[in-house]
Write a structure and sequence with these properties.
With 548 residues, the chain is α/β, with parallel strands linked by helices. It is built from 17 helices and 13 strands. It has a 7-stranded mixed β-sheet. A 4-stranded parallel β-sheet has the order 2-1-3-4, sandwiched between helices. The radius of gyration is 31 Å and the shape is elongated.
Length: 548
């Protein structure tokens, strides 16, 4: 049994779905045009499957007319095979309302790919012609798609013209460069945009739509497909997919599968589409169950376009919680040991350090644009602002040093990316563990002697994750100098002064580790290491408010 689609898609995307386990053939026309009946007829003759063929057509007038005419010509030429050709139309666009599409119906969009995949898997497993047709119609009746774009695509050989203003977006995009449902301005935040798209897909109160028979009783099970319309980056596609998953779950739907990739495009259109496939319930009057459909969807196929997509089974990962960077934060949180603080020095020191980093961001960024990739200042500012927010929200209270340091580590891990985030998070996680062990026999009070011991333990722990040792032109240089000074009995400000000198000395050091190691060394002359300068900034600000 064979399956093949009508195809008037602009860039012949559908060719990527031809192969073992999916389509037997695809017939492509010119850009935004249906193939002619002669092409389709020739494809039917080449396929020539004695068990029958299901033609899957997206609901566009040209496709239906030309594929329909080819089917009639085939039946006239081969009357004994006339009943072996079946015709399934997919119309999954929810942007086209019932009134607007009263005659022509809704357009066929990316949901058509789910019809291809699921029906073809049954055909490969030996399903009869009738079974494959019934399953294809079942999927087509349960799928909805909505597209959105920041512009239209550019047809090769034509003059490129802006179709939308810089602050406009268009919802209800098709795949043939036709206008969408409506234009709006300004472009909303991602979560708001996704909420609008999901509302159009799932509404059961809109008389113009409500195409899917959703119950909204937290038992609707779906497949979610996030499709790149051609010109969207992988980063943006992933961000939209994440927002879509959260929004769909917020509405109480159960996601059984998530598909993310480039399934059906409109050349280089900067846009995406969301597709929902509503899976049958146990009591639904359908020939195929939810388990059947998911099994066919999961069936392996060799075709390139499907293999390149991201396919997730979210239910298998529910309840999984990742571990901490070094030690389990929850485990430390539940421990009963406390280190009491005599005054608010710790809170004042953290606030001072956060403000100093926030204010020093331009200077640190300028250094990193020479010695690194330019993100050090912004990364540290993000972390500092997140710690400041944790203080204002009472998460860092100044009542228990162990708990406060643990929260600092957690906040940094969640807010700071890259090498800096990892190093700071490891250090503060290790410091929290060292403080806990120091208080394991009895409650102790914070002080410089305790700080010297536990900071050294945390630094030793950090050294197991980095090869940097002073002098290294890294943040290790001032950090090591500060901790050594405290362990030698120096006061807070004196130790910070030595840390500052170590940071200053990095301008004359060759880079041995980090991104600066790849920079031409003469370009680093007279420029301090931005990571070392950041530690200097933190220590000087913090120590300036701690009583000696």
């Amino acid at each position: 049994m064979s399956t093949f689609p009508a195809e008037a898609a602009p860039d012949n995307t559908i060719l990527g779905f031809v192969g073992n386990g999916m389509l037997s053939a695809a017939v492509c026309g010119n850009i935004f045009a249906s193939p002619n009946p002669g092409q389709v007829l020739r494809a039917l003759e080449l396929v020539n499957n004695p068990k029958g063929t299901v033609i899957i057509v997206k609901n566009y007038t040209g496709d239906i007319l030309n594929f329909g005419l080819a089917r009639e010509k085939f039946s006239a030429l081969y009357p004994d095979q006339a009943f072996s050709i079946r015709f399934v139309v997919v119309a999954d666009d929810v942007a086209v309302g019932r009134s607007q599409g009263a005659i022509v119906g809704r357009r066929g969009l990316a949901g058509t790919v789910l019809v291809y995949k699921i029906a073809a898997a049954l055909a490969k497993k030996g399903g009869t012609l009738d079974e494959v047709e019934v399953l294809a119609r079942c999927i087509a009746s349960r799928v909805g798609t909505i597209g959105v774009g920041l512009g239209h695509c550019h047809v090769p050989g034509t003059q490129s013209e802006a179709t939308l203003k810089v602050d406009e977006y268009e919802i209800g995009m098709g795949i043939h460069n036709e206008p969408g449902h409506r234009k709006s301005s300004p472009i909303p935040p991602l979560n708001t945009l996704v909420e609008e798209m999901v509302e159009m897909l799932t509404s059961t109160s809109d008389p113009e739509r409500s195409f899917l028979d959703l119950k909204h009783d937290k038992e609707d099970c779906i497949v979610l497909m996030v499709n790149n319309l051609g010109g969207t980056s992988e980063l943006e596609l992933a961000a939209l997919a994440g927002a879509a998953v959260l929004e769909v779950k917020r509405r109480g739907f159960v996601i059984d599968r998530i598909l993310i990739g480039t399934f059906m495009t409109s050349l280089n259109m900067p846009g995406v589409s969301l597709t929902l496939l509503l899976l049958p319930r146990p009591n639904d009057d359908t020939q195929f169950s939810k388990a059947d459909i998911l099994r066919y969807l999961d069936e392996e196929t060799d075709v390139l376009a499907w293999k390149m997509a991201i396919k997730l089974h979210p239910r298998e990962n529910e309840g999984h919680v990742g571990g901490g960077t070094v030690d389990s934060s929850e485990q430390l949180k539940q421990m009963d040991h406390r280190i009491l603080m005599k005054d608010d020095s710790f809170i004042r020191a953290v606030k001072a350090a956060c403000k100093a980093i926030h204010d020093a961001e331009p200077e640190i960024t300028s250094m990193d644009q020479i010695a690194g990739d330019g993100d050090c200042g912004l990364t540290l500012k993000t972390g500092a602002d997140a710690v400041s927010k944790a203080i204002s929200e009472g998460l860092i209270s100044g009542r228990n040093l162990i708990e406060d340091v643990r929260v600092v580590a957690q906040v940094i891990e969640e807010s700071m990316d890259g090498t800096s985030g990892a190093l700071y998070s490891i250090f503060f996680s290790a410091l929290a563990k060292a403080l806990y062990e120091a208080a394991s026999t009895s409650n102790v009070s914070a002080g410089r002697e305790l700080a010297a011991d536990t900071l050294k333990t945390a630094l030793d722990r950090l050294y197991t994750y980095t090869r940097a040792r002073p002098p290294s032109r890294t943040l290790i240089d001032p950090l090591d100098a500060f901790i050594r000074a405290l362990n030698a009995g120096k006061a807070w400000k004196a130790a910070a002064l030595l840390a500052g000198q170590a940071a200053e000395s990095t301008k004359s050091l060759p880079a041995k580790v980090g991104r600066a190691a790849y920079v031409e060394q003469k370009n680093l002359n007279a420029v301090c290491d931005p990571g070392a300068w950041s530690v200097k900034t933190i220590l000087e600000a913090a120590c300036s408010v701690i009583p000696e």
